[in-house]
Amino acid sequence: MAPAATAILRETFGFDDFRAGQAEIIEAVSRGENVLAIMPTGGGKSLCYQIPALMGEGLAVVISPLIALMRDQVCALREAGVEAGALTSANSPEETDAVLDAIGAGRLKLLYMAPERLASAAALSLLRRADVRLIAVDEAHCVSEWGHDFRPDYLRIGDLRRALDVPLAAFTATADEQTREEIVARLFQGHAPRIFLRGFDRPNIHLAFAVKNSPRRQILAFAEARRERAGIVYCATRAKTEALARALQEAGHAACHYHGGMEPDARRLVEERFAREDGLIVVATVAFGMGIDKPDIRWVAHADLSKSIESYYQEIGRAGRDGAPAETLTLFGPEDIRLRRAQIDEGLAPPERRAMDHGRLNALLGLAEAQECRRITLLGFFGESAAPCGNCDLCDAPPQLFDATTAVRKALSAALRTGERFGAGHLIDVLTGNATERLRGLGHDALPTFGVGREFSRSEWQGLFRQMMGHDLLRPDPSRHGALRMTEAARPILKGEAAITLRRDTIASIERRPVVRA
Ligand code: ADP
Ligand code: ZN
């Protein structure tokens, strides 16, 4: 590592040491390599392009989608004595003139630009004339058409790179393979970048999941044990955010709701209150996210399961940015699995993409149904290895496991023998020998599987079906509401070629389990 980088870190930014990954990335960027760095939010990616910009000659252009964050960064850099400026729609004419002067005089080191600016011919010719040495792209996943942050103007970055013919350093917190490939193809266009994937562990965040049985009560209990501490509750629908915020208020908490259906002013008000107040709870859809920069969020709860493991990671990652202990709780149940599967199946994405999305949901369900340390499972998804963390619910209380092969085979054969046309409720009637009128009408009381599962209660079977869905052995049929179909993954178990272990503690008497860690 060139001594210059460490000197800049200390003298300009006032930090003693690099964080995980920073030094290697800075070295590669300052050598002029094309770089794609996948770093978690809060991991410190800004320094990875700011320091190389200050180490070398000329100007670095930073493309970022978040005007407010750009302005904050420019202010902070100027306070540290760095010549930095921004060109965004929020500029006053004087600000723009000052930036243009600084570029003209060759003084400016960092120029922040909103992607919309790339559409302007004037901006492009300005950049052509300036001594640009590096393009840095923040939130590089915005170039992916399939992500929810897609910005069409990001597609212009590739042209800019070609026109200026300088190295490009792209940064994102989104780690999945597909997005990565899209970034490489669209931003680097054949100039394969060096990829850095580092530092995904957030050891101060406690990870916990609980089976959803009474979500309102579970969230209220979790919030109650964290009274006066700032937190976010994520919900899958707008209506739920409003209802849950009201319930929290009635329980005496400072709480408000936030979703994409609110007026921009009302949303801004919530964002400002959250930043300013000490113990506010925001009950929100995922619309509350990108750009929240509050370091002391002490907890994040999910009243509904996220749509993928990346979304989950980003959402819980908003807690504890200051490094102090923070806690999370994610509720999940069969309805969540149904909802998320349906959203994928009913979406407009092409079939390959849908299969990929099911895979990313599977990864999250695997985490929900994990049988060992959650952090090992979570970091494994991001390609990092770990030892048992001591800071998750499964490290706190190791789960009870049992060989569920026989039970799973019974359930699978009940689904097959009834033509894969029924949901868990009916299949449980078959397994437990509950001869309802409907069941007799269908002749299902004559099936060989009728009553073969009496060793488990109804609620235990519900837990088993949830786990089977979580392990993707049974999947809701997109064309027939509620019906469960067996997946290919289940075939070896059905045929007796593979065994399966499930958790006993999340099926047995869920009601009596403490749902919340005090
Ligand atoms: P992100 O990766 O989300 O863009 P930032 O670059 O904003 O993260 O950095 C997150 C926080 O970490 C900032 O407050 C930043 O000042 C701080 N930070 C970054 N690098 C270091 C470091 N080496 N030592 C201490 N703090 C750091
Ligand atoms: Zn653990």
Automatic annotation (TrEMBL):
Residues 26-193 form the Helicase ATP-binding domain. Residues 217-273 form the Rhodanese domain. GO terms for molecular function: 3'-5' DNA helicase activity; ATP binding; DNA binding; four-way junction helicase activity; hydrolase activity; metal ion binding. One of its GO terms (biological process) is DNA replication. Its EC number is 5.6.2.4. One of its GO terms (cellular component) is cytoplasm. It is an enzyme of class 5 (isomerase). Residues 215-365 form the Helicase C-terminal domain. Its cofactor is Mg(2+); Zn(2+). Keywords: ATP-binding, DNA damage, DNA recombination, DNA repair, DNA-binding, Helicase, Hydrolase, Isomerase, Metal-binding, Nucleotide-binding, Zinc. It catalyses: Couples ATP hydrolysis with the unwinding of duplex DNA by translocating in the 3'-5' direction. The keyword Zinc applies. Belongs to the helicase family. RecQ subfamily. This is DNA helicase RecQ. The lineage of its organism: Bacteria, Pseudomonadati, Pseudomonadota, Alphaproteobacteria, Rhodobacterales.
